[in-house]
Each structure stands twice: as structure tokens, then as C-alpha cells.
């Protein structure tokens, strides 16, 4: 299936990857892979089953045997709708910790590739353009200032009914950025040839327009 078009959108937490990737996918009629959700699902599964967090072998097993499925905007873990539960900051923070373990990443590799189906895929995460789909036709690296990202995440959490404290969020975001960027396995970085897009002063729709116009340009050459 390597001829099926892929657009990768990578970037730090709360840069708008998910929102932009979903809208681009919807516009093009493409499938959508939220790779971060797979790490969040693994984290939630580990928390629910009390897997010891220092047992790398057990963590990799949890990733390998992840019983999940995606249906529209809903995400299921063993038939339970966990779309909201996986968005908790505690789950995101644990996801970022276990995502640093190479055997966990390896366990989720094949599942991510399987999302590449006709007529195309938009995939968002940290290593979509660098590791999972290195030959993607269009690669985007989304960024925004840490303040803009903390504000976006704050609003999202409150809208979902979670409580949030801005100071804690800024600290979490900075720590997560550092962990995702400094790990040795698939660190967060712009892929070679990626288009950089700083959305600090942009709406999500403006970012979507930019990605769509880059995509249109790849089809003209
Ligand atoms: O929504 P947010 O950007 O905060 O996080 P996410 O995309 O849901 O991903 C949660 C965590 O999973 C990140 O902090 C990363 O450490 C990890 N992740 C990763 O390592 N590789 C990916 N392709 C996607 C997420
Ligand atoms: O996936 P990621 O963690 O990178 O971000 P997200 O879950 O898509 O969250 C970004 C939030 O910021 C959403 O509530 C968007 O509506 C909002 N936003 C955006 O995505 N892009 C902008 N340029 C401005 C706001």
C-alpha cells in the first residue's frame, strides 16, 4: 500500500495537530490516524490493570495487545468508549513516559501502518514523518508558542469537564516537550523536507488552508 498518499503532521503537545489533521482528512475524504491516542490508550490500559510502571516488558506487552478500535470521533478500549478518559492530563503524561520505551514504540508500529488505506491518510503525532511514514508525500511540522499551547489545552480541558490550573499546565507542557524532544527513540523533531508552520497567531482553519494548499502543490509537480 506504499502508493497510497500520506500527509504527516507532527509537532509538540497542543500545537493543533489533531484538530488540523482531522479537518484536512475530512476535506480530502482521507482516513485519519491519531497516533498519540495509541500511546494514551496504552497508558490508560496500564493504569486500569495496575501494570507496574517500571516493568518495561509488561508495558510493551500492554501495547502489543491493545484491544482498541476507532469509530468516527469515538475511541474504544475493550469495547468501552474512552474518548474522554484518554484526554486527562495524567494519561497524557504517562503516555509520554512510556512512549520513550523503544519496545513500546515497536509494539505499536504495525498498527500505525495499517491505517494507510485508500484513498489516503492524514497521520498526526511526533514521529509520523521521521519514522512511521518517512516517504510521505507531504510532511508538516506544526508549532506554536508554549503560552498559546497552554491556553489551547486549558480551554480544551475545561470544555471536557476536567479541572485545570494554568501554572500546572505550563509546567506539564514544558516537561513533556523536553521529554519528547530529548528521548533517544524517535524524538520529536521536524522530518527532513517538512514544511514548518507556526500557528501561534493563526486560527485552526487558517492552518488547514495552508496544509491543503501545500498538498495541492505536491500534486502539480
Ligand atoms: O495531545 P498531545 O499532543 O498532548 O499528545 P498526544 O499526541 O495525544 O500524545 C501523547 C504522548 O504520546 C506524547 O506526549 C508523546 O510522548 C507520545 N507520542 C509519541 O511518542 N509518538 C507519537 N507519534 C504520538 C504521541
Ligand atoms: O493534537 P494537539 O495536541 O497538537 O492539539 P489539539 O488537540 O488539536 O488541540 C488544539 C486546540 O487548539 C483545539 O481546541 C483547537 O481548536 C485549538 N487551535 C488549533 O488547533 N489551532 C489553532 N491555530 C488555534 C487554535
TrEMBL record:
InterPro entries: Cytidylate_kin, Cytidylate_kinase_dom, P-loop_NTPase. GO terms for molecular function: ATP binding; CMP kinase activity; dCMP kinase activity. It catalyses: CMP + ATP = CDP + ADP; dCMP + ATP = dCDP + ADP. One of its GO terms (biological process) is pyrimidine nucleotide metabolic process. Keywords: ATP-binding, Cytoplasm, Kinase, Nucleotide-binding, Transferase. Residues 7-213 form the Cytidylate kinase domain. Its EC number is 2.7.4.25. It is found in: Cytoplasm. This is Cytidylate kinase.
